[in-house]
Amino acid sequence: MSTGAIVAIVVGALVLIALFVVLSAAARRRRVEGRREQAAELREDAQSRTLRANRQQATADEQAARAKQAQAEAEEKAAAARRESAAAQERAQVADRERRFASERHEEARSVDPDVTDADSDGDGDDEAARERAATDRRS
Known about the structure:
- By secondary structure, this protein is an all-alpha fold.
- It is built from two helices and no strands.
- It has one domain (3-139).
- Helix content is 88%, strand content 0%.
């Protein structure tokens, strides 16, 4: 083989190697660019989902706060209702005690009143009738 043929083969081989290197670099750049585009799309999707998740979380937090406030209001109303109920029971007990004292005083007044006879204080609780009879007896 001649020197020119060897040089031509070597130059051809170098051209093929260079062509292979250039083509593989171009293919690699296309792959890298495709992956960059894919990564950008994924980031954009992730950011969109993050924003949606943040909005959903904010809505959930607001709803939880409203529920907590409603529960606190309900507990406050229940406590007020318990206080009112206790006050009502206490007043009812005071009223019963006063009725007993009043009844005892009426009974004591009947026993002390000289115008009331034993027949008048038969315990039927008709104080008005007894007073009318006593007033009638005094007039006569």
